[in-house]
Here is the input.
Amino acid sequence: MLLKILSPVIVISFLVLIHELGHFYFARRFGMHIQQFSIGFGPPILQFTRNNTLYRIGAILFGGYVAIKGVEPSDEPPTPDAFRAKPSSHRIMVLLSGSLFNLFSAYLVCMASFLITGISVIPYTTLEQPAGAFRAGDVILKVADKPVKYWDDFVKYTGITPDSVIVTVLRGHDTVRVWYHKHESLQPLIPPVIGEVKRDGPAWRAGLRSGDRIIAIDTIPIISWNTLVTTIRAYQPGDTVSVRFNRNDTIRTVLVVLGSQRVLENGTLRNVAAMEILIPHQRIRLGLRAPIRAATEIWHIILLFFRILKQMLTHQLSPSLLGGPLSLIQVTATTVGWGLSAILRLFYILSTQLAIFNLCPLPPLDGGLIFLTFIERMRHKPFTRKGYELAQTIGWSLLILLLIYVSYNDIQRIFKLK
Here is the structure.
């Protein structure tokens, strides 16, 4: 319980520490004087001075900063150790370094996760229901000429092919080649066996564990994972259901008080009933492939960030999906119950998102200050104090409005006002 409470503070503080260390390292490297290095805001709970730099930890551990001498324009000429006395290339590198450190740490954690825990794959390729030219019971063997061992292979290969592709399946004793069209929804036949149980979740508290095979929910027989999900979602969060299951060839029954889970449907989030369990899966080790796979994973997270942004701007997704500090705290605390692999994944996702967000061209974010530096280079003269303060005021105003909006979304979701 204590770890669940402290986990948001630990994760957020560590992300900020890495980001600020990037600014700190390059500012020192380029001879800039660092006045303060702070993790958190508000009154200090710990501080000390070393080499004319004040190091502090603030009482509000949600952010941080590195105060470098001479960042803001001044009527007085800058001293040699001031930020504005350095070449623009050095200033841009200092501003960029926070996000670079976040991206690099995300890559390292992602690679470590793949090396330590491996990756999770769905080891089932038999189809549950017919669709198009496919029949229930077809076993997918190939997409084009690429062999399919896991369902993840099918998703990956069909995702990079044109709208239609030849898929080889095993149908009975025959090998058949059929056309797959991307609008067709194919689902694997996954047995209703629990892969993982969230610690302290509804299923865990009822006594269900990994490897248990669900036989029935109340009087409804469960024959597949899809049937299990559909059946559970027909109830409401807080309902109590009778779960009949097989453990080591012994039939048992427990009562589960259903929790809730947010799912994305038609561009909006809604709460559905859930037992907080994961599908049966297999973990595979990547070995020497881990570095390349980690780089690919981080790149996909970056692309996903911009894809979601585009969908929001084109009204394909609702802006109400945006979450703020409360959502971040809630997600971090919830992730702890899923174990090490989930915690590491959350860290490298958040670290990548933090890097991208900080590069948005909006003062006072790093990207906004880089943007102002480029403008100064094109104008061949620095901003006046008044112009710089105006840009900062506009940027801060927009960020505060964004914070109010996402916090409003958080409150609606948490208190179920939607």
The chain has ten helices and 16 strands.
